[in-house]
Amino acid sequence: MTAFLTFPLTGNRLAMLFVCASLAGCASMASFTGDTFKPYVPEVVQGNFVSKEQRQALTPGMARAQVRDILGTPLVTSLFHADRWDYAFSIRRQGVPPQTFQLTVFFKGDVLQSIEGGDLPSEAEFVERLVIQRKATSAPNLQASEEDLKKFPVQKAQGGAERAAPLPASYPPLEPTPR
Question: How many domains does the chain have?
């Protein structure tokens, strides 16, 4: 009977200890920042990139085959809108804001009639947007001072000239020897 009475009391103590430990663990999480556990986000590229130079090469009156040669295969073609080709491009990359570009080409029969689309970057501007801007860090000083050099032992050569301590005659093997 005494064991039955002490068990709930011990269970209450264990529960209280568990609650206190959990709260103490939550308090220590304040030292972590949002960048501490940052998951890897894969790069997602979708569609056809159309540059400003490609857009400028298009002129009304061009044939469909010529437009396809310049821009490539359209991302979206519709059976219901056979005279419309849509070129869409999006890229999401970790550390760089997402980018989306759209261009729509309209035909009348087999001839290019008009072009609609947002502001397209040139190829050089697009490449610059993909580069992750990193903070510049200062390079360490690679020059040894006289005080630093005095820490190493120097031996006298036969002619009286000073030279550094000799290198070891042999080094341990890089790979284990086969048995």
Answer: 1
Amino acid identity for residue 113 in this structure = Q
Which CATH number does the domain housing residue 98 bear? Answer: 3.30.1450.10
Alpha-helical regions (H) of 42-162: 52-57, 64-71, 123-130, 146-149
Contact 112/57 with Cβ under 8 angstroms?
no
Residue carrying the six token digits 């190493």: 152
Domain containing residue 77: 44-130
Residue 67 banded pLDDT, cuts 50, 70, 90: very high
- pLDDT (tens digit per residue) in 109-137: 899 999 998 889 988 888 888 776 666 67
For residue 68 the two structure tokens come to 């396809």
Q: Note the pLDDT of residue 84.
A: 92
* Cβ atoms within 10 Å of 173's Cβ, excluding its own: 7
